[in-house]
Amino acid sequence: MWIDLLKLIAAIVLAFAVGKLVGLVRLPAILGWLIAGMALGPYAFGLIGQSTVDAAWYQTTIHVLECAVGMMIGAELSWKKLKKSGGKLIVTTLTQSLGTFAVVSGVFAAVFAATGVPVYLSFVFGGIAFATAPAPTLSIVREFRTAGPVTETLVPMAALDDVVGIVVFFSVISVVSASHAGASVSPAEVVLILFVPLAIGAAVGVGGGFLLRKIGGKGRTLAVLLAFLSATAVAGLAVNRFLLPRPMMNFMLLGMAFSAALANVLPEEKMKETMRSYNPVLGVAMIVVILNLGAPLDYRLLVGAGLYTFVYIASRAAGKYGGAFVGAAITRSDKKIRNYLGLTLLPHSGVSLLFTGIAVTTVSAFDPESATVIQGTIAAAAIINEIVAVIVSKKAFQWAGEIPPDALRRKKRSSAKT
Question: What 3-state class would DSSP assign to 113?
Answer without folding.
Answer: helix
